[in-house]
Structure formats: C-alpha cells, structure tokens
Amino acid sequence: MKILCDVHISFKIVKFLQSKNIHAIHVNDILDGDKTKDQEICNFADQNSFVVLSKDADFKNSHFIKESPRQLLKINLGNISTKSLIDILEYHLEVLKTEFTNPMCCIELSQNRIEIFN
User: Fold this and answer.
1) DSSP 30
2) Is pLDDT above 90 for 34?
3) Is the peptide bond before 103 cis (omega within 30 degrees of 0)?
4) Predicted local distance difference test score (pLDDT) of residue 79
5) Other CB atoms closer than 10 Å to residue 107's CB: what's the count?
6) N or C: at which end does the chain have fewer Cβ atoms within 10 angstroms?
7) SS (H, E, C) 36-96
C-alpha cells in the first residue's frame, strides 16, 4: 500500500505509516507542495498507485463523480489530535491494507465506524 497525505495531514502521520512499512509521502514534498491543486493530487495518486489520505470532502466528491482519485481514505474525525488519528489508523490498519488491494476504493473513517465503498 502506498499513501499520499494531503496538505492538512500531519507529517507525523507520514512517519507513522512509514514505521509500519507503508510507502507514505506528503503532498508538500511533491509537485507544487501546498499549492498543488486537488486534481493534480488525484492525477499523481492515480498514475502512481497511491491512496489519497485527506480530510477534504472534495476528494470524496471527485472519487464518486470523476472516479479520481481511484483510492481514497477520507478522515471524518473533526479536529482531533495527531496521536488520536495515529491510534485510529493503527487500529484499522489491517482492514485498510486489505481493502486497498481493490483498484477502486473509498474508505471513510469516523469516530465510531469505518465505511467501505468499493
């Protein structure tokens, strides 16, 4: 699994994912950094087989309307601490790895649930 973290995702999340042997990068380290447009992020992710990790609802809309990004992990957790997000990701990590073997997948993580759309 390869994950591309959107601009509002902490670099600590990238480090956590890397510690779990997941190829993770942050959008600030590629393309135009924090000025990269959503469509460019989607194109990069699709061309390089990355899951987009974002809090931005625009990516979910794009996934269902344009089928891009093909793989999306949408975070619906409000303003939680990075540590809390890491804990939630770690709890669901095996499910995420399994589900993101599907070429077209959207997963939403909320406080008390995980929703999977294939």
Assistant:
1) S
2) no
3) no
4) 85
5) 22
6) C
7) CCHHHHHHHHHHHCCEEEECCHHHHHHHHHHCCCCEEEEEECCCCCHHHHHHHHHHHHHHH
Q: Which residues contact 110 (CB under 8 A, 6 or more apart)?
A: 76, 77
What DSSP character marks residue 18? H
Rounded to whole angstroms, what are the CA distances from 44 to 41, 67, 73, 77, 101? 5, 14, 15, 25, 18
What does the CA dihedral 89, 104, 98, 6 come to, rounded to 10 degrees? -20
Domains in the chain, start-ordered, CATH in brackets? 2-117 (3.40.50)
CB–CB of 6/55 below 8 Å? yes
Per DSSP, the three-state class of 21 is: coil
pTM here is 0.95
Query: What pLDDT is stored for residue 112 in this prediction?
Result: 79
